[in-house]
């Protein structure tokens, strides 16, 4: 599918772009096409589902898009996205909830109900304040979702921690 690199997004201009959104829940449909984040676009580019071109109509390679993602310091987000997508989850942005992603259980979709999990991504060297950690848990609990901490180490291995609210 023909796609164009635009600022901070990739726009799928192909007439069949709606299939990626309606059947697989990628991106957001707009009047100009299917808008994909760089993370979604790299995942689809590697899987050879889309082709990406820049403003000069030059092909954007996997290496080119990976470099852009690394420059934006979101490569760990791509790794978590890829891991969860590969496991069959539907992933959408979690900004509204102060997290990196929200994910839907296998067999559920954004139109069928609410997501089950919020995902916060950390590197293993990253410090987190107790106040921030507490707010992530409180928000997840308040919207009836489970918080998953995805910790990415230096070797790009991911460890997930299921965090739940408990009352003493």
Give a verbal description of the structure.
Strands 3-4-2-1-5-6 form a 6-stranded mixed β-sheet. Strands 7-8-9-10-11 form a 5-stranded mixed β-sheet. 32% of the residues are buried. The chain has 5 helices and 11 strands; from the N terminus they run ββαββαββααβββαββ. The radius of gyration is 17 Å and the shape is globular. By secondary structure, the chain is an alpha+beta fold.
Low-confidence stretches: none
What percent of residues are in strands?
25-35%
What shape does the CA trace take?
globular
Percent helix, as a range, is 25-40%
Distance between the termini: 53 Å
Number of strands: 11
Instruction: Count helical runs.
Output: 5
* Secondary-structure element string: EEHEEHEEHHEEEHEE
Secondary structure class reads: alpha+beta
Mean pLDDT: 89
Largest sheet: 6 strands, mixed
Q: How large is the radius of gyration?
A: 17 Å
Question: Numbering strands along the chain, what is their spatial order in the largest sheet?
Answer: 3-4-2-1-5-6
């Amino acid at each position: 599918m023909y796609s164009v690199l635009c600022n901070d997004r990739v726009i799928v201009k192909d007439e069949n772009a709606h299939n990626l959104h309606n059947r697989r829940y990628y991106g957001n449909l707009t009047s100009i096409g299917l808008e994909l984040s760089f993370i979604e676009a790299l995942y689809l580019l590697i899987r050879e589902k889309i082709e990406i071109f820049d403003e000069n109509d030059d092909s954007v390679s996997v290496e080119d898009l990976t470099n852009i993602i690394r420059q934006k310091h979101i490569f760990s987000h791509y790794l978590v996205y890829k891991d969860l997508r590969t496991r069959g989850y539907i992933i959408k942005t979690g900004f509204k909830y102060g997290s990196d992603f929200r994910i839907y259980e296998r067999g559920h979709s954004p139109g069928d109900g609410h997501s089950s999990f919020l995902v916060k991504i950390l590197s293993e060297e990253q410090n987190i304040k107790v106040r921030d950690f507490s707010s992530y848990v409180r928000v997840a609990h308040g919207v009836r979702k489970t918080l998953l901490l995805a910790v990415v180490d230096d070797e790009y291995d991911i460890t997930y921690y299921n965090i739940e609210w408990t009352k003493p």
